Amino acid sequence: MVAKRIIPCLDVKDGKTVKGINFQNLKEVGDAVDLGAFYAAEGADELVYLDISATREGRKTFTGLVRSIAERIDIPFTVGGGISSLEDAAKMLEAGADKVTVNSAAVRNPDLIGEIANHFGSQFIVVAIDAKLMDGKRIVFTSGGTIPSEKELFSWALEAQERGAGEILFTSMDHDGTKSGYPCDLFSRLCGSLSIPVVASGGAGSMGDIAEVLTKGQADAALAASLFHYGEISIKDLKEYLRDKGIPVRL
Q1: What is the pLDDT of residues 161-170, one digit of tens each?
Q2: Which phi-psi region, left, alpha or beta, contains residue 143 (left: φ > 0; alpha: ψ -120 to 50)?
Q3: How far apart (Å, rounded) are the C-alpha atoms in residues 87 and 142?
């Protein structure tokens, strides 16, 4: 059985890790490189770095930060934020990233997914989807969760897979930062409709929540931020808890 992955997410603004609730009221929680090195030593399987203001402010992901991360960290990490072309993706790979994640740019130009996948391989591209319930539909948002698009979660995820995405990172905006638990029924439906891995994001409040999204939610990996950033649980303790629940993890 394939091991489930535990992935701390570091939302980055101006080189610092930040965290908010429902994508708002951001607070600094530490240095992006130092936190990543700490999580790697704790047993994280991968890391995700998202420059959450890059798209909104029209900047490119800070390549120098990626180089610093690659120098300090020996586990795979994904970088996103402001990646809108094949050239942007190439810069991230050259700087040391293992994968790139695209969100807003892919919504605006779906062909970008295929361009990156065809050039580097599907395993290199993660399509991140931020969605929120509106009028009974899960509407996809862009620009750091600030602008609603015309796309809907399930149809867009399937299209992203068909275009070459190697993985989907889905964040439920309604649950992000609330620590109220993941929407497991929603994740189960999404995972059941796709053949590529799904990383669950948005709402982790306890080790039980993470166990639930990896079982009931059928997610391949669980991504969390607040729980780890504020020291509420350790990755080591979490993995031992999951193992005791019969969930396969790498210890």
Answers
A1: 999 999 999 9
A2: left
A3: 21
Catalytic residue among 45, 51, 130, 176: 130
Q: Write the CA distances from 158 to 102, 129, 196, 216, integer angstroms.
A: 15, 12, 10, 21
The owner of tokens 């539909």 is: 137
Residues 206, 211, 217, 218, CA torsion sign: positive
Give the number of other CB atoms < 10 A from CB of residue 136: 6
The question of whether 74 is a catalytic residue gets the answer no
Cα–Cα distance measured from residue 131 to residue 134, given in angstroms and rounded to the nearest whole number:
9
Alpha carbon distances (Å) from 117 to 22, 109, 198:
31, 14, 17
11 part of the active site: yes
Q: Which of 238, 223, 230 is nearest to 20 (CA)?
A: 230
Q: Say if CB 80 and CB 70 are below 8 A apart.
A: no
Contact 220, 46 (CB under 8 A): no
Confidence (pTM): 0.90
- Residue 73: is its pLDDT beyond 90? yes
